Amino acid sequence: MPPEDLGTLLPTWSAIPFAGMLLSIALFPLLAPAFWHHHYPKVSAAWSAVVIVPFAFAYGAPALHELAHVAVVDYVPFIILLGALFTIGGGIYVRGGLRGTPWVNGTLMLIGTLLASWVGTTGAAMLLVRPLLRANRARRYRAHTVVFFIFLVANIGGALTPLGDPPLFLGFLHGVPFFWTFVVWKEMVFTAGAVLGAYLLFDLYWWRREDALLRARPAVPGEPIRVEGWHNVFFLGGVLAAVILSGTVRLGEVTIFGVAQQVQNLVRDAILVLMLAASWRTTPRRVREENQFTWEPIKEVAILFAGIFATIIPVLAMLRVGEGGALAFVIRVVREPAHFFWASGILSSFLDNAPTYLTFLSTALGRLYPGVAEREAIPRLIAENHAFLQAIATGSVFMGANTYIGNAPNFMVKSIAEEAGVPMPSFFGYILRYSLPVLIPVFALATLIFFE
Length: 452
Fold this sequence. Notes:
By secondary structure, this protein is mainly α. The chain has one domain. Helix content is 71%, strand content 3%. It is built from 21 helices and four strands. The protein has a two-stranded antiparallel ribbon. The longest helix is centred in the N-terminal third of the chain and has 34 residues. 47% of the residues are buried.
């Protein structure tokens, strides 16, 4: 029995562990934060075991092949990329006397938005969040600035390349060409421009409510802007070059745990690990200490995504076979590009956008090319029905900004801001005060312009 046939055999309830894993990520930090902080690795391991043990017992070799495929092709390269960007970005420290005016804040966000597609949303966020926080440390009203930073730098800005945001990198790993994502530049420019404009209106309002002496205060004298650890920019360039290389050359393939893996992908991952190690060894400890760099954020992401990738296996298998699987009702409901934009976006808001992208990529392939091998179906999707992939890509990337749990960098930025004393809104406060009134109207306009 080939692995592709598993999707026709799995029952609907095999998706429950995936839902449980993601609901745990959404609810435990809100309802039981102390428990979650100490025991989230156990929760992730428990949900993974609920899938892996009966799955392997019931389906034997095909199930083990699926598990190995997810580990070798998806999870390990995904974590290596995030780890490299996190480590290198954490070695760059921007020092200076910036003053958190609306125009300075807007400029920092614009720079971060433009950088995000090239150094990753994780890299851009880690590079600029601390200068932004220092520039605004004297302000009373600053939480909204961090929220819009999450919107733009940690999410929307990463839409143009697979290096930009985790879901696009997973698409790249599954065969979407590296430069294909440039086709969404109009959607990104419109969305980022609208959100940045909304931020300037917000911040001008709150700036006028700040103390008059603060508004009149010039930048701190004797504190010129300078970059420490600037050599890490070359390591970021190495990451970019390695990812592009893996998508443009063919060096053959090898088999790892029974899974075919491209040699160029192994070379890419080796270069990323080398860039990570070189950054760690060559960056002075003082720079990372001033950046308040710790391994905890990337450790949390690695553990939680291990659970996500394990529990998503049955879901992807059922969607991959289209209407021949137990999730055929999803295939029937989500039919047009606009449907895919909102379906992938809504799930990305609450279920993390990386696995959501894979889920709806499988949904589109199952609906349009049922039973066709992925390596053949994806080129056909791009050539014949590219609007579907554009909708999935933009929905997953853009709407990862709707909640704290929509994208891995959102967690990191929130945690760093709270450590700096910023009173960040609660999970639901973030949604009610910012996502619903700002992002949802922008996404509705984007739907009318690009997907109707």
